[in-house]
Structure formats: structure tokens, C-alpha cells
Write a structure and sequence with these properties.
alpha/beta; TIM Barrel; Rossmann fold; 2 domains; eight-stranded parallel barrel; six-stranded mixed β-sheet; 16 helices; 14 strands
Length: about 500
């Protein structure tokens, strides 16, 4: 029989999400019955400053009254592509754009800005920064990385986490030991990073060790198999040799370990959510994330109760993790509650200025200036597309918006190409039609037209272009990047 005290200790090791702008009754019942001690929010929970502040206050009151302990109320507010607040607060440049400025101070400023916004509404743990290295051209992590070079990721990540934690919000580095060298999105399937230990130590682990040395309070696991770190071929989240042996013992991390979402296919397809949750906790995670369903969380709790009674979870270790979580929660600060620190004009201006600094002409044929862009210019290319399920869908058609601003013509990739085109701007994104867009740009260049190709994502989008084509790196597909891009096109530089 599970005691009330054991329910509370197990509940502290879970963070659960829900749909809606207010707490649904099934979630209230989950907290009451299973004493779940932490919450995770997404864009689906965010409507406005006042709504979000009230929601966080209500979550805090509910969990505190039912468990006797403060909750972690967490969110993925990385910056740029993965942002749950950009529609109501300050849109921010993505990590790759920040890295492109070559100034870690910009990472510090964005981390601090985000921390101010989270603290203002009562969120106290941010599932950021991403410390993966952009080493695989097809990685789903993409522009969420600061850079490809481990040392650069380490510098920018440390600056970001310092800015964030100075505001009183926990930072959580992810996705340990790394998700940047895989072509598979762990939301969809199981990625494998088959590389020797020495290569992992010299690449993936560099930024995480730097973050640990800089005092980061949280680390999130990845659902990536690392055979050289654990020959059992299970995702790192479920691997005791990785999460305890490497992260805790070899790298000396003493903070809070969180799992990535257990309902992602990389774990769910192998073990199911209840058993995946148990394995994550047994491997060494302090807190496992179940992001979408109170029903799934209820089933997981029942499974954990059984495991506690049958030896599938060690009683002594469970008590250690419970005490460790409570010790970490002693560092929590109360919400600041200041709307002036949530999407203020100054915050938006700061983010826009850093975004502007990141844009660059990556390649110019024979060093020539950008060709004139005016009402005679043709705009075409790809619409914004979410390349990972971590991203929220963005409805934006850069070609259409630019055509309206320049009073020019916009065509689609499947439209016949007009004759005698003088200048064309082609927008590229990590989209299933990227190859077609690159081919269209090359065909236009072969007619003698001046072609400007713009990557609204990673630099890899610019591969395969004819050497007569100008290349611009704009890093992310949103209006924060599109505004300075149009200014660049208008001014020719």
C-alpha cells in the first residue's frame, strides 16, 4: 500500500502539462489524487500577460495546497524558433542568429530578457539553453544551436544561462549528452549517435561541462542512443550509465536532472509512457516530463507506485531524489509580477537590434554589392515550416510580404517562370520543397537574372546554389528576421 508520503515523493518527480488557458478539472484531480509536484506550460497555455500570470498563480496555489511544496512551473522559452511567449511578449533571435553576432554579451542579454519575462508571470524554470552543436546538416535541432563549434556553443551557452539565472529563473541545458549530430527528430523516431567516446568528449560534452562549471541549475536529457556510452542501446534518458555515470559522477553535476518529454516517440514506441517514466527515474532523472495528458500521467503514477513496491524503483534512491528536489526548490524566488518586464518596448528593441546584427551577406559573386530590389523584382520561395515538433507553427509567407512592401510581383514555385526577369529574391527554408527552390533559383540565374537567395534557417539551406547567386543568411523564418532583411534588400547592403 502506497502511503501519502510516498505519493508526495513520487509526485515531486513528475512535471505534467495540460491544454487550455485555465486549469482543467482533470488536471486538478490529477494533482489532488497523485500529488504531482510540478507543471510544464506551452504556447497552448499562453493568451496574455494577465492570463498567464493568473494561471501560474493558480497552479502554484493548487500544487502547494495539495503537496505542501512549491512547484517548478517550467516552459520551453529558448529563443527564436522555439518560443512559447513570442506572440504576447518580445520575439527573440534564435540561438544561431545570436551566435552569428560573434558577441556572447548578446546571449547574456537575451537570457536576461527571457528571465525577466518568465519571472514576471511566475514561471521559474526555463528549459533552455540548447547546448547541442550543429554538426549534422540534417539535424532537427537546426537554428536552436548557437554554433557548430563546441567551444563557441560553450561560450554563448554560459553567457545565456548567466543572464537567465541572474533573474532568479532556473536554466536547464539540453539535450544531454547531445542531439546535434543526428538526422532523426526524437519526437518522431529514435536517433542514434554512433561515435567514439573521445569524439563525444571533444564535441558534445564540451558545452555541457562548461555549463556545469558555470553553475547551471538544470540539465535535460536527450532521447538519443549513444552506443559508446551505453552498449544497451537505449535512449540517454533511460540510460543509467549516461545520466548517472557520466552526468552525475564523471562530470560532477549536482543540480536538477530532467527528462525530455516521455511521450516522444523515441521513448514511447519502445516502452510506453508508464514504463518509460519509470526507466527515466531509475536512470537518474530527478523529474520526468509528461507534457500532454493527465490520463497518461495517472497511468504513469500507478505504474510508479507498483514499481516502488516491487523493486522497480529503489526506495532509498527515491527518497534521495525527493530530498534533492526539495533542496533545489529552496533556491526558488517568488514571482516578480511586473508587466513592465514582459514584452516592453525596450525589450523588443533590444531583441530587434541583436537580430539585425546577425544578418549578413554570406556570399557575393565577385564581391559585388546586392542588386537593386524594387517594384520590378520577382519574389518567390518557401513558406515558413516547422522542422521539428518542438517548434510552434508560424504562418508566414516572406515572398508575399516582401512583394507587398516593394509593390512587386510574387509567384509560387509551381508557377511558370516569367521571361526577362531582372532581379529575383528566393526564400529558402528547411522545407520538403527546398531542393525544388534551389533548382528554381539556379534556373533563374541561368537566364541572366540577378538572383538573391535568402536562408531563413540554417546555412545548409544555401547549399547547391549557382556561384552567380548572392546568398544572405537571415537565420529564422519570422517577422523579427524579415524586417531587417527587407531593410537590407532596400539599401543594397
Amino acid at each position: 500500500m502506497i502511503t501519502e508520503a510516498q505519493k508526495i515523493s513520487i509526485g515531486q518527480r513528475l512535471a505534467v502539462g495540460f491544454d487550455g488557458f485555465t486549469i482543467p478539472e482533470e488536471y486538478r484531480e490529477l494533482i489532488r489524487r497523485y500529488k504531482v509536484g510540478n507543471a510544464i506550460l506551452f504556447r497552448r497555455n499562453v493568451q496574455s500577460f494577465s492570463q498567464l500570470k493568473a494561471l501560474c498563480a493558480n497552479i502554484r496555489e493548487l500544487i502547494l495546497s495539495e503537496t505542501g511544496h512549491e512547484p517548478f512551473i517550467m516552459i520551453d522559452e529558448e529563443c527564436g524558433t522555439v518560443s512559447r511567449l513570442a506572440h504576447v511578449a518580445a520575439p527573440t533571435p534564435c540561438a544561431l542568429a545570436i551566435g552569428a553576432t560573434e558577441d556572447p554579451e548578446n546571449a547574456y542579454q537575451i537570457g536576461r530578457l527571457i528571465g525577466q519575462e518568465l519571472r514576471a508571470v511566475g514561471l521559474n524554470l526555463n528549459l533552455a539553453p540548447v547546448l547541442d552543436c550543429l554538426t549534422h546538416p540534417a539535424t532537427a535541432i537546426g537554428n536552436r544551436c548557437f554554433a557548430s563549434e563546441p567551444e563557441k556553443v560553450a561560450r554563448f551557452g554560459a553567457a545565456y544561462l548567466r543572464g537567465l539565472q541572474e533573474t532568479g529563473v532556473f536554466a536547464c541545458a539540453k539535450h544531454f549528452p547531445g542531439h546535434g549530430d543526428t538526422a532523426v527528430d526524437s519526437h518522431l523516431a529514435l536517433p542514434i549517435a554512433d561515435k567514439p567516446v573521445e569524439a563525444i568528449q571533444n564535441t558534445e560534452l564540451v558545452s555541457f561541462q562548461a555549463a556545469i562549471d558555470a553553475g547551471i541549475l538544470g540539465v535535460m536529457s536527450s532521447h538519443v542512443v549513444y552506443p559508446s556510452l551505453d552498449p544497451e542501446h537505449v535512449p540517454a534518458t533511460l540510460s543509467r550509465p549516461i545520466m548517472t555515470g557520466w552526468l552525475r559522477e564523471k562530470m560532477g553535476f549536482r543540480g536538477l536532472i530532467l527528462s525530455d518529454a516521455i511521450e516522444m516517440n523515441a521513448v514511447k514506441d519502445m516502452f510506453g509512457i508508464p514504463e518509460g517514466t519509470r526507466r527515466a527515474l531509475a536512470a537518474g532523472s530527478d523529474v520526468a516530463l509528461i507534457c500532454h495528458s493527465a490520463v497518461d500521467a495517472s497511468l504513469a503514477c500507478e505504474h510508479l507506485y507498483e514499481a516502488l513496491q516491487t523493486g522497480g524503483l529503489d526506495l532509498e534512491e527515491t527518497e534521495w531524489h525527493y530530498r534533492h528536489i526539495l533542496d533545489m526548490k529552496k533556491l526558488l524566488l517568488p514571482p516578480a509580477g511586473d508587466e513592465a518586464m514582459f514584452g516592453s518596448p525596450a525589450q523588443k528593441a533590444l531583441a530587434a537590434e541583436i537580430m539585425k546584427k546577425s544578418l549578413c551577406v554570406a556570399y557575393a559573386p565577385q564581391g559585388r554589392p546586392l542588386p537593386a530590389v524594387d517594384g520590378q523584382t520577382l519574389f518567390l520561395g518557401l513558406n515558413a515550416a516547422a522542422v521539428t515538433r518542438a517548434s510552434d507553427n508560424i504562418a508566414l509567407d516572406a515572398a508575399k510580404e516582401c512583394a507587398q512592401v516593394f509593390h512587386a510581383r510574387r509567384i509560387h514555385l509551381d508557377d511558370p517562370l516569367p521571361e526577362n526577369v531582372r532581379t529575383t529574391v528566393v526564400f529558402l527554408d528547411r522545407n520538403p520543397e527546398l531542393e525544388k527552390a534551389v533548382s528554381t533559383a539556379n534556373r533563374l540565374a541561368s537566364t541572366g537574372a540577378d538572383v538573391i537567395a535568402v536562408s531563413m534557417n540554417v546555412p545548409m539551406c544555401l547549399q547547391g546554389l549557382d556561384p552567380t547567386i548572392w546568398q544572405i543568411e537571415a537565420w529564422q523564418y519570422d517577422r523579427l528576421a524579415l524586417t531587417p532583411l527587407m531593410e537590407m534588400l532596400k539599401n543594397g547592403k
